User: What shape does this take?
Amino acid sequence: MSRVQWHELTHAYGSAQDVPGRLSRVAWGDARTSAEALSDLGLWLGELAVFDATVAAVPFLWDLAVTGSVISRPGVLELLQAILEHDNPPQVDVQLAAHQAVLGGRGTVCVLTSDEDPALQAAAHDLAAAIDSHTCEACHPA
Assistant: This one.
């Protein structure tokens, strides 16, 4: 994460300089801390629209999704699905990059559908279905 110039990127509310801290809280926090950090990331990176910080964060979200010690892995997959479902019409190139970063994890999500955690399995099945049925003008121009 230290190689990303987060202060130069933006999310829904401005500078993305706080994104690494939230990603770390998802990775290492207890259930409450992780859930709060994931909620912040959802608002910042994917629930309203996608941003350049979203593109930078997606690889780290995939890493969190496959790390067994991360408490909120189902929520991470839900955030990845939210990113795939949202757009940014003024910045179609950012939208395309964010969506491609999520779509690129299809193999990973397939593995997670067999995880021992039923909540993770369900989230993985939902994300796999969203990936398989994804159509948007940025990814599939008419």
Observations:
- The chain has a mean pLDDT of 94.
- Residues 6-132 form one domain.
- Residues 114 and 122 are 10 Å apart (CA to CA).
